[in-house]
Write a structure and sequence with these properties.
The chain contains no helices and five strands. With 53 residues, the chain is an all-beta fold. It has one domain (6-52). Strands 1-2-3-4-5 form a five-stranded antiparallel β-sheet, with no helix packed on it. Strand 3 (32-37) and strand 4 form a beta hairpin. It is elongated, with a radius of gyration of 13 Å.
């Protein structure tokens, strides 16, 4: 059985926001892309906020 790998890529966009991509090595599986807003301390995507402390 082939092991699947997950790559994490991040890049700074628009000042305080960081774009994070979780890329699956299995091309049949979807990648996950989210935005982390360091000013508000939240993780966002096209849906509502996932985490806030």
């Amino acid at each position: 059985m082939k092991r699947k790998a997950l790559r994490i890529m991040a890049g700074l966009i628009a000042g305080k926001r960081i774009a994070i991509t979780l890329a699956n090595s299995d091309h049949a599986a979807a990648d996950v892309r989210v935005l982390y807003d360091s000013e508000e301390n939240v993780i966002k995507d096209t849906y509502p906020i996932y985490h806030k402390q």
